[in-house]
Amino acid sequence: MFSSGYSGNFATWQLQIPYFIEQGYRVLTWDYRGHGDSDRVNYGLRIARLAQDLHELINNLQIKQYVLIGHSMGTMVDYAYTSLFNNDNILAIVSEDQPPKMIPDENWPYGRYDLNYANLVQMAMDFPKTPLIRQPLTSEQKRRISHPTPKFDFNENLPLLLDGMGQNFLDVETHEQMPHLFLAGAASPLYDAKQAEAAKALQPNMASQAVVFPDVGHIPHLEASESFNQVVVDFLDRVLAK
After folding, report:
1. CB count, 10 Å around CB of 228?
2. DSSP 239
3. Measured distance CA(29)–CA(1) in Å, rounded
4. Which residues pair with residue 210 across a beta bridge?
5. Which among 60, 100, 61, 59 is positioned nearest to 77, based on CA atoms?
C-alpha cells in the first residue's frame, strides 16, 4: 500500500507501480481526502483521520496482509495506523524521508531543520514555496507521473499539514515489531539524513534497515527511482522470503 506525501496523489508512484508488479507484488495506491481524485472536504483533516480512512479502505478491500510504504506525510499516516490498529497483518513498513517526530528537541535532534513551536504555523504556510528535490526530473519522468487532477488547495488543507508537523511517533517506533526500512535523501532540504539510522535504532526488529540515497532530496522515489525500486524490493524479498 503506497501512501503519498502532503499535496501528492497516486500518480507520484507511477515510476514504482510497473516495477513492483513485475516483481510479483500487488500494488495499491490511494488519494487522501482533499488530494488527487478524492473529494475536496474541509473536515477530517488530521493524520489520525487519514489513518482511519486507510483502515476502512483495507477492510473494504478485504486485504489480509500488506506492506505499508509511505513518503513524507504518508509515513506519518502509517505510524498513526500502526498506533491505532492491530499490527498483526502488517508484513513490513517502508518510510521515505520522514522522521517520527518533526519538531526537534534535546532528545530528538533529527526533526525538520529550524522548526519549533513558535514558527510552526509560518513554516507550514511557507511550505508551498519550499523546494523539495535536488535532482531534476526528466521530461519522461514528468510525463509518467502527470495526472489531470484538480489543483491542490494548500489553504484548505493547511490544518492537515499543521497537525502532521506537530506529531510525535517516537513511542510508536519503539513498539514496532515488524521489519522497517528507513529511507532518507542525503541532500534532503527538510531533514538530516541521520534521522533514518536514528529511527532504526529505536526499533527492535533486527531485520530493519536504514538506507540513505546520495545526492538526493526529499523524494528519492522520483529523484532516484531505479535505485529506490531496487532497494525496496531487495528489502521486501529478504524480510518476506518471497
Report:
1. 24
2. H
3. 6
4. 182
5. 100
List, for residues 165-209, the tens digit of each pLDDT value.
Answer: 999 999 999 999 999 999 999 999 999 999 999 999 999 999 999
- 187 contacts 220 by C-beta, under 8 angstroms: no
Report the chain's C-alpha Rg in angstroms: 17
- Return the exposure string of 72-104: e unless at least 16 CB atoms fall within 10 Å of the residue's CB, then b: bbbbbbbbbbbbebeeeebebbbbbbbbbbbbb
Indicate if the alpha-carbon torsion angle 60, 64, 32, 16 is positive or negative. Answer: negative
**Which three cell numbers, joined as nine digits, stand for 168?**
510525535
pLDDT of residue 242: 55
Residue 1 confidence (pLDDT): 97
User: Is the separation of the CB atoms in 181 and 208 below 8 Å?
Assistant: yes
Q: What stretches in the chain show pLDDT beneath 70?
A: 242
Q: Burial-class residue 191 by CB neighbours within 10 Å (0-12, 13-18, 19+).
A: buried
| Residue 66 to residue 79: CA distance in whole angstroms | 15
**Angle in degrees, 0-180, between the axes of helices 158-165 and 47-60, rounded to the nearest 10:** 100
| Residue among 82, 72, 71 at smallest CA distance from 48 | 82
d(CA 38, CA 71): 18
Distance between CA atoms of 12 and 219, rounded to whole angstroms? 10
Let me know: does 115 contact 165? Beta carbons within 8 Å.
yes
